[in-house]
Amino acid sequence: MKIIKTIAAVKKETRKLKGKTFGFVPTMGCLHQGHLSLMEQSLRENDVTVVSIFVNPTQFAPNEDLDSYPRDLKKDEKSLKELGVDILFFPDVKEIYPGGYSTYVQVEELYKVLCGKSRPTHFRGVTTVVLKLFNIVAPDNAYFGSKDAQQAVIIKKMALDLNLDVTIKALPIVRDTDGLALSSRNTYLSGPQREAALCLPKALRKAEELIAAGLEDAAQIKTEIVKELQQSKLVEIDYVEIVSLNSLKTYERSEGTMDIDVNNTLVAAAVKLGKTRLIDNFILGEI
Ligand code: AMP
Hints:
By secondary structure, this protein is an alpha/beta fold. Helix content is 36%, strand content 20%. The protein folds into two domains: 2-171, Rossmann fold (3-Layer(aba) Sandwich); 184-284, Pantoate--beta-alanine Ligase, Chain: A,domain 2 (2-Layer Sandwich), CATH 3.30.1300.10.
């Protein structure tokens, strides 16, 4: 595996391999099986797989965990080598945002809802860095996790709106054996918090079962999820939202019903345990 730190060297390397298909997996490192599942898919579908590890400062607000975000490059390098990844791009912040940097990309409307309500500058940082990385790597296919469903929807819209020559693929959430979605931020949780966090996947699973049994009213589904999340005193609800998958619009009450489209719906929740914010969701349909 080639480990590359500069944009010029990645461009040189990828352009040298012109004619081959490129898969790309952007990450912030501290890799777990959720990340690795994206790389495995890329390795299956492309000649060359490029992974980036970059803890992107523009997607963190000043009060968030940029400085304490978990980093473990040695372990990540080992996992990537074992998997057979071809190129690891691991730039410094100055390489991506040199002094005087001033251009940002924002997908209107979609950035404001769900996680965007409590993180209003987050998706602008994500789309900016992802577009820059796409321009640097020039991938044919790019792989994202449905764990960050809003992110995948927004990036897909950016690729469409800006006519990018990349296919965005959203892959399923990888969970721990107890059901908690894998996340680099799970390392922040204390024992009791980890235990309490399980109410998040549990609440969503219950909602999924209710929908499978025929419940379609968005308000009722939301009530059931909130009820389940309120079981734990350690859990503070940030949001529970049921939205149309591609527009991220909430269901409006019309003629007394708020029935969901069972082929195009995102049921998403975010909770806080102490300072740690966790997200989870399930999708009816495809991003
Ligand atoms: P991050 O390093 O958190 O920015 O994540 C990099 C990519 O891995 C994103 O596309 C995430 O959605 C994806 N990802 C993170 N956790 C999971 C998970 N548990 N299952 C599937 N994909 C994930």
